[in-house]
Specification:
About 30% of the residues lie in helices and about 30% in strands. Strands 13, 15, 16, 18, 19, 20, 21, 22, 23, 24 and 25 form an 11-stranded mixed β-sheet that branches. A 6-stranded parallel β-sheet has the order 2-9-1-10-11-12, sandwiched between helices. A 4-stranded mixed β-sheet has the order 3-6-7-8, covered by helices on one side. The radius of gyration is 23 Å and the shape is globular. Strand 4 and strand 5 form a beta hairpin. The protein contains 14 helices and 25 strands. About 50% of the residues are buried. It folds into 2 domains: about 260 residues, 3-Layer(aba) Sandwich (Rossmann fold); about 210 residues, Rossmann fold, CATH 3.40.50. The protein is of the alpha/beta class.
């Protein structure tokens, strides 16, 4: 039996396509479907590594989690990771095929990428009975339409009914819906079966005349008016700026400063920390003061040498060095790990035109960028993590690696984690280093703070340093995410015409 399909497209970026796709992945799972998400092409700096070592967009992974299935690269066959200067690293079916300018990709390589998309569609239809498809941006971008591989071309190829989403919170929702439909070709418009008004605040009765107008003007019913959901703990579309993350001004015991570099990647590494009830996480943007945090974190980067130059130019490198010398804890994750070493070299110009850039000198390491990308899910353990004297021991820690650099020591230093498995295969690899003073460490392990025991131990080490009592585990990250998927599904069910949804589905 052929798989059923539905597709969510938007009148623009950031209208809620990713979140609605996530919601219906969970709803369909609850209703007994073997459902899975599909986004032909995603542009993201937040990525994830699958069990077999393939790389894909983080928001699609969240959708797979909501559907209760393992993420596979076929769910996101094309991933574009911006490197700067209108250039992106192109990932096809989980593996890098090189860097391309926006012009070269649009004019030439996007059609090569289409072959990967067709392969992925075939895989998805063989393995699932329901495919929940997400578009990107708007289907009405006439300048990009000729090389479209993610919006209406997908809808027509898969013969998927389309639900068009508009964000009423930003204003102009009615005009954006009508305008989008007007710019579609007749066969494309015929695929649009329902309209969705998202992020609504206020009295629904005041909106009724607008809903009637849309039905009369377009001939397409509004199937849902969805409320604005505050602080939803689910990975959204990665292209959304960190500036859109709401600030939390509640003063808590522990203050963590994450240095937001221009090419920051995988900032989801810090989501679990931000949900801890005794922790404030603040992203330090250009011009901001670092202040007096209990911990500084340098995050991952898609262009390590350029981000390192940014730290030097803006005085952050000098300030972080001075603070570390005074004993302030500093942690580097992936690109941040590379930056806190003595030097980062890029002789092959893998990420930039910079041959080498001086690091912060907090770890006795040199990193050299290489042509081959390392992507693994890992299991690791730690026998004696001396960070701030905490002496943490842990087994079965889950994380993932995404890096093109090789980091070596210039003088002896203590290792951090022992990786015992990479992408399901036994491994014996030492990862990361920590200083003799115990206040600085770096690691290639993304997602390491998602491990509840390790995260609480680290926070407690910061608490004890301030004379505060240690606390038991306060927050279970995985359980929280599952509860948020259910909360999202419940909110959509209550505000969506599910009977009409299933009628449309049965017609296909």
């Amino acid at each position: 039996m052929m798989a059923k399909r539905i597709m969510f497209q938007g009148t623009s970026s950031h209208v809620g396509k990713s979140i609605l796709t996530t919601a219906f992945c969970r709803i369909l799972k609850q209703d007994g479907w073997n459902a899975a998400p599909f986004k032909a092409q995603n542009m993201a700096l937040n990525s994830y590594v699958t069990k077999d070592g393939g790389e894909m967009g983080r928001s699609t992974v969240a959708q797979a989690e909501a559907a209760g299935v393992d993420p596979v690269v076929e769910m996101n066959p094309v991933l574009l990771k911006p490197t700067g200067n209108s250039c992106s690293q192109v990932i096809l079916l989980g593996h890098s095929v090189g860097n391309y300018s926006a012009r070269d990709y649009q004019d030439h390589y996007s059609q090569e990428a289409w072959k990967s998309v067709l392969h992925a569609i075939d895989y998805m239809e063989q393995h699932f009975n329901m495919i929940v498809i997400e578009g990107a941006g708007s289907p009405a971008e006439v300048n990009l339409k000729a090389n479209d591989i993610v919006n209406m071309r997908i809808a027509k190829t898969m013969n998927a009914p389309v639900f068009l989403i508009a964000d009423i919170d930003r204003g102009g929702a009615l005009a954006s819906i009508v305008g989008t439909l007007e710019l579609l070709e007749p066969d494309e418009r015929a695929l649009v079966k329902g309209l969705i008004i998202n992020k609504f605040r206020g009295d629904i009765t005041l909106l009724e005349p607008a809903l009637t107008f849309l039905r009369e003007k377009t001939g397409i019913p509004v199937l849902g008016v969805l409320p604005y959901l505050d602080k939803l703990g689910i990975d959204d579309e990665d292209s959304v700026s960190l500036q859109d993350i709401p600030s939390d001004h509640v003063m808590r015991d522990i203050h963590i400063a994450v240095i937001q570099t221009p090419k920051i990647s995988n900032f989801t590494d810090f989501d679990a920390l931000a949900h801890e009830p005794d922790v404030n996480v603040r992203f330090v943007q250009k011009g901001d003061l670092i202040g007096d945090p209990d911990l500084i974190i340098l995050p991952g980067s898609k262009n390590t040498t350029e981000d390192l130059l940014y730290l030097h130019r803006n005085g952050y490198a000098k300030e972080i060095r001075e603070m570390a010398d005074r004993g302030v804890p500093v942690i580097g994750i992936c690109g941040g790990y590379q930056m806190i070493g003595e030097k980062v070299c890029d002789p092959l110009h893998v990420e930039s035109e910079n041959d080498e850039v001086e690091g912060l000198g907090l770890l006795p390491t040199i990193t050299t960028m290489q042509g081959e990308k390392n992507t693994y899910q890992v299991e690791c353990e730690c026998g004696d993590l001396p960070f701030l004297g905490m002496k943490y021991e842990g087994k079965g820690l889950r994380a993932y690696e995404i890096h093109m650099g090789r980091t070596v020591l210039t003088r002896p230093a203590q290792n951090l984690f022992h990786i015992i498995s990479r992408s399901g295969k036994p491994a014996d690899v030492q990862d990361g280093y920590i200083t003799e003073t115990g206040n600085v460490f770096g690691t290639y392990c993304h997602g390491i703070f998602d491990n509840d025991d390790l995260r609480r131990s680290l926070i407690n080490a910061l608490r004890e340093r301030k004379g505060l009592e240690a606390l038991p585990i306060q927050f279970r990250y995985r359980a929280y995410k599952e509860a948020e998927y259910d909360r999202l599904a419940d909110a959509v069910r209550k505000n969506f015409d599910m009977k009409e949804f299933y009628r449309i589905l049965e017609e296909e």
